[in-house]
């Protein structure tokens, strides 16, 4: 039996007695829910989007400054950023995303004290993960050559990648701390840190490259410094201003480490299969004729696409917070409505991005390069970029729902099938067998993304949110019980 709508103001009228939404039975009620959920979503998403865009803009600024040094330098740093750095970024972000599920649901369930323990555990796991990824940075040049990249581009890219090794370890601190703050909706401070760091990065790039003439070395120094400033600033905020969720270092961080690793790996695989998918087109394009122009034009498009993707990574995080918090509170309807509102609004934003790209297709490449040949090549790819941006507006939001609900393994399997069994082979056939070049590669990969999007939308449509609430409650009881025992062991020691 449905709980009747309560009397009172608009907010109370929509609420059932347990704090969840009552059943929506009219257009006016649906509009009121839409308005309320929109406010909740963007209260979290706006500072998160701003922070993530600022972080990604540090990459874009680096590309812009280096791009004006020459076409070879632009291709080299683009390969390093889009292949090696993206590989590591995706893996580390995915490993840290386990915290979105656990911290978000724990916060919703009122187990705030567990957030600090989860964050410490994630720090340990990600620092060890950094050591695992280190050889990829050290041997970047031979790895890129093995993957078929132009030797000159690979050698210069390898030199830059080695110089950015310190930035890798900053991610191990940065991502868990972000998830810790996101789960509590303490996102405004992250926006301020992102903004200040972006300005600092621009100043350092200008000083090291334009004034001191350090070239790629200056870009690497600025990149490392910026990432560590971000990580340290967030940790300081946690230690000083998050007393409820941070109660100091605990032996509980070492308890049930392997179970936490399994959830982290599932999150990493899910996210990496998404991020590496677009990375693979850059690798395949390196085998096409006129590799420098091909990679350069593609890198400009993927850089812009990546900027838009980062916006939706911010919305992804906000949706994850909303879903995990509401599941922790045992509110199935609020979970469902928050998902529907986020997906609808993301599609609208994606369509707007498509229109903007098509209108400016002959001009936006000027920001990245002075080469007329590169600008013309980018213009030809603009419509593919626009379609990709529409799909990218939906897919990260659904992934955020998956993280908030703990569906990482299911989505990882779907990504593997759609992207690497269907999309990537189709792109290879269109690009190399049908001789359509980079447009064929990209078209095939768009087909894979389209298939994945339809499957995930169908899963969302069929989801039983009452069952998801039950599973969330069971998960919290399991993890909370383990960590209580761990604290006792730590006290005994």
From TrEMBL:
Intracellular or extracellular location(s): Membrane
Gene Ontology biological process terms, A to Z: xenobiotic detoxification by transmembrane export across the plasma membrane
Membrane topology listed for this record: Multi-pass membrane protein
Entry's transmembrane regions: 123-144, 156-177, 189-216, 228-246, 258-279, 291-319, 339-361, 381-404, 416-435, 441-461
Residue ranges that the Swiss-Prot or TrEMBL entry lists as coiled coil: none
Annotated InterPro entries: MATE_euk, MATE_fam
Chief place where the protein resides: membrane
Name this polypeptide is given: Protein DETOXIFICATION
The species this protein was found in: Chenopodium quinoa
């Amino acid at each position: 039996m449905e709980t009747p709508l309560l009397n009172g103001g608009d907010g109370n009228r929509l609420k059932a007695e347990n704090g969840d939404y009552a059943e929506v039975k009219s257009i006016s009620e649906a509009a009121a829910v839409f308005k309320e959920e929109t406010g909740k979503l963007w209260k979290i998403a706006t500072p998160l989007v701003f922070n993530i865009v600022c972080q990604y803009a540090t990459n874009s600024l680096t590309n812009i400054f280096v791009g004006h040094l020459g076409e070879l330098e632009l291709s080299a740093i683009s390969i390093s950023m889009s292949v090696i750095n993206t590989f590591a970024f995706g893996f580390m972000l995915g490993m840290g995303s386990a915290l979105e599920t656990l911290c978000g649901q724990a916060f919703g369930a009122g187990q705030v004290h567990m957030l600090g323990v989860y964050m410490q555990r994630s720090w340990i796991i990600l620092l060890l993960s950094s050591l695992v990824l280190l050889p990829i940075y050290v041997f970047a040049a031979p790895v890129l050559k093995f993957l078929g990249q132009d030797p000159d581009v690979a050698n210069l890219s390898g030199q830059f990648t080695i110089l950015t090794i310190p930035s890798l370890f900053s991610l191990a601190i940065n991502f868990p701390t972000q998830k810790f703050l996101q789960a509590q909706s303490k996102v405004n401070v992250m926006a301020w840190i992102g903004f200040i760091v972006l300005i600092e990065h621009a100043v350092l790039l200008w000083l090291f490259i334009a004034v001191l003439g350090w070239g790629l070395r200056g870009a690497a120094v600025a990149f490392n410094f910026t990432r560590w400033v971000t990580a340290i600033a967030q940790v300081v905020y946690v230690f000083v201003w998050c007393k409820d969720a941070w109660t100091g270092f605990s032996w509980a961080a070492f308890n049930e480490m392997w179970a936490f690793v399994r959830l982290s790996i599932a999150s990493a695989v899910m996210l990496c299969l998404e991020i590496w998918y677009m990375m693979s087109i850059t690798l395949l394009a390196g085998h096409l004729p006129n590799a420098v122009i091909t990679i350069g034009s593609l890198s400009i498009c993927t850089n812009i696409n990546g900027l838009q993707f980062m916006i939706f990574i911010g919305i992804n995080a906000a949706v994850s917070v909303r879903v995990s918090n509401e599941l922790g509170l045992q509110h199935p309807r609020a979970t469902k409505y928050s998902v529907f509102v986020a997906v609808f609004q993301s599609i609208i934003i994606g369509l707007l991005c498509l229109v903007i790209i098509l209108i400016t297709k002959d001009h936006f490449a000027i920001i990245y390069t002075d080469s007329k040949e590169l600008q013309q090549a980018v213009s030809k790819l603009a419509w593919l970029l626009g379609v990709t941006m529409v799909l990218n507006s939906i897919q990260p939001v659904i992934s955020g729902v998956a993280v908030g609900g703990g569906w990482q393994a299911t989505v990882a399997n779907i990504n593997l099938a759609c992207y690497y069994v269907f999309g990537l082979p189709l792109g290879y056939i269109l690009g190399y067998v049908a001789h359509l070049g980079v447009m064929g590669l990209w078209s095939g990969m768009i087909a894979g993304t389209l298939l994945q999007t339809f499957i995930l939308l169908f899963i969302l449509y069929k989801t039983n949110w009452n069952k998801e609430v039950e599973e969330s409650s069971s998960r919290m009881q399991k993890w909370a019980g383990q960590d209580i025992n761990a604290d006792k062991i730590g006290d005994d020691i």
